[in-house]
Amino acid sequence: MLHVDDLTVSIGGTPILKGLDLEVGPGEVHAIMGPNGSGKSTFAHALAGREGYDVEGTVTLDGADLLAMEPEDRAAAGVFMGFQYPVEIPGVNNMYFLRTALNSVRRSRGEDEISAREFLKVAQEAMDLVEMKQDFLNRSVNAGFSGGEKKRNEILQMAVMQPKLAVLDETDSGLDIDALRVVASGVNALRGPERSMIVITHYQRLLDYIKPDYVHVLVNGRIVESGDHTLALHLEEKGYADFLGEDAELTGASA
Amino acid sequence: MTVAAPTWQADALEQLASLALPTKRDEAWRYSPHAKLSQLTFGPAAALDEVPSDVEAQIPVLDGPRLVLVNGVVDPGRTNLGALADGVVFCALSEAPPPAAARLQQTHESPDDAFSVINRAYGTEGALVQVSGQVDVLLHIVDVSVPGATHNASASRVVIDLAEGASATVVETRIGSGTGFGGSNVRTEITLGAEATLEHIILQDLPASQLHIGRVDVDQAASSTLRARLFNLGADYGRVAYHVHLVGEGARAELSGLYFGFGDQTLDQQITVVHEAKDCTSRQSYRGVLDDSSTGIWNGCVDVRPGADGTDSEQSNDNLLLSKTAEVNTMPRLEILADEVSCQHGATVGQLDDTALYYLRSRGIRKDEASRLLINGFADQVMDDLEHHGVRGWVTARLGHGHE
Lengths: 255, 404
Ligand SMILES: Nc1ncnc2c1ncn2[C@@H]1O[C@H](COP(=O)(O)OP(=O)(O)OP(=O)(O)O)[C@@H](O)[C@H]1O
Ligand SMILES: [Mg+2]
What we know:
- The structure holds two protein chains of two kinds.
- Chain A is of the alpha/beta class.
- Chain A is built from ten helices and twelve strands.
- Chain A has one domain: Rossmann fold, CATH 3.40.50.300.
- In chain A, 38% of the residues lie in helices and 27% in strands.
- In chain A, helix 2 (71-77) crosses helix 3, helix 4 (116-129) crosses helix 6 (147-161) and helix 6 (147-161) runs parallel beside helix 7 (177-190).
- The radius of gyration of chain A is 18 Å and the shape is globular.
- Chain B is built from seven helices and 19 strands.
- Chain B has helices at 7-15, 34-37, 98-105, 114-122, 354-362, 367-380, 389-400; strands at residues 66-70, 73-74, 88-92, 126-131, 134-145, 153-162, 167-176, 182-192, 197-204, 210-220, 225-232, 237-246, 252-261, 266-275, 281-290, 295-304, 312-321, 327-336, 342-350.
- A ten-stranded mixed β-sheet of chain B has the order 2-1-5-7-9-11-13-15-17-19, with helices on one face. Chain B has a nine-stranded mixed β-sheet with strand order 3-4-6-8-10-12-14-16-18, covered by helices on one side.
- In chain B, strand 1 (66-70) and strand 2 (73-74) form a beta hairpin.
- Chain B is globular, with a radius of gyration of 21 Å.
């Protein structure tokens, strides 16, 4: 489904990702862990299409060349990225935003726009999923939301957009224990044979809730180790010490 | 009913002969298009044989009585005052009932800038609103400028008096006809009695070939509230100057507005709030969006006079520049001559937020639509507490097709 081959990303001349390979099959959940600054968010943004990156390599989703697409076309192709730092947009109503987003991708796919009534139903189901109160839909997008509320709002958007590939960048950071459970069960509810996920996290705890099929360790712009969920347990115990400073030797060790 | 011409009007007519137009050196006219302003020609108000056909469709549809002035003369065909509640006078100045007629002999400040003098000389007709008690309906005054053969610009006068404890909403729409050069000059004089509340809205949407010069003078008695909103959208040069005097203790003035420029428009707001009494509150909150080669001017002043202790004032002016050739001149100013005052001010000038744009696009929203969402989101905040759906709807629709 997702095929990443020798992806390199430089920002302002500084190489951040240095040849990243990843295969994600339909319905699979991959976790990416790694030290601060190792390039996890950069990878997520490279998939979503952030401007200002010098990107080389190949990224395809079901055969379609993602790197050639604008961010909005990637969304229409089924990519959804949950931001590590969701953006506050004062003055833009959350409900209106969601509906505009959904209708935009439907139009791009040649589908009819959703009716107001039908949309309310979709939104309501999504809100129930993340246990969000109605008034969040009537507020401006993320404006004045607490850290945890912003993360819930990301999952709400994912539930409405129903992507093919969800990339969740530290959606668990800043969540209290209950919110973590809510967000995790929201993610689990959206798991399915047609939907693949890349979950970026620092904490093994999230992976107790969302059991990944694969765990990858990203260090200094490369995937230096891949394994099953036990790799996360190992990292939790030992930290990244085993992988630091030797990524040169480990190049090509990805699954 | 005929009313004797007030002496100040005769004086103004006399001053016309030696009138000097404002120049760059006048702070309040620094960025105005002086060459264009000098081409405006004024004269005694005269009724048109026929009101042009493009006028009707431009008038916002708002519930409530309306008075339409075309070139400074009442247009009976488009005016519909209906039945008014007791305690409400809403009529042409020339139809003012005798007690009100005496009031019209007086004027607020008599500013001596050329356009104020012209307004006193030729703005002989206009609208009168006098309210005691509560008016639930919105009173709509429409001023239409149709450049004529003898002179290309019109002048009119609006007088609004609210008695003690009265409340009302007045919308002033200012529009014009055709594509010829011309303009309008409207002076509004507002007096608020103790504890009176006025919501006053100006919708300025003259054609791009015309100039608009507006001036609003307000005197507020104790504990009165003014909410003044300006939607400064149309005209080649669109200007409204507010002079608000908080005369009685505990008076409150909330002024807000939106200017949204395209093409070569220049949109100019000159705001002065004078705190003359204790414990008064004022808010100035204006937003500007400037596209193409348009220019925004915001000159906001809070003047706290000696003895106006306990003054609470805030000024903010936020601007969004959508093009490299758009510009804004923002000047928040404070003059404080009293004690225990709290005055805050700030101005910002920015561009569309790239990160926000990316966030929206990552959700599938096309770039142009994402920009529009952000721009409207920025502009709409001016209307956050605007209750009148008719006005809100008009502004939204107007901005929606603003880029034609
Ligand atoms: N716009 C930018 N300009 C310059 N350097 C950047 C830019 N964006 C990211 N970087 C750098 O790229 C590196 C990787 O950043 P990235 O945000 O991808 O790390 P991360 O793995 O997500 O870290 P964290 O765990 O702290 O979220 C960092 O050193 C960062 O400073
Ligand atoms: Mg990160």
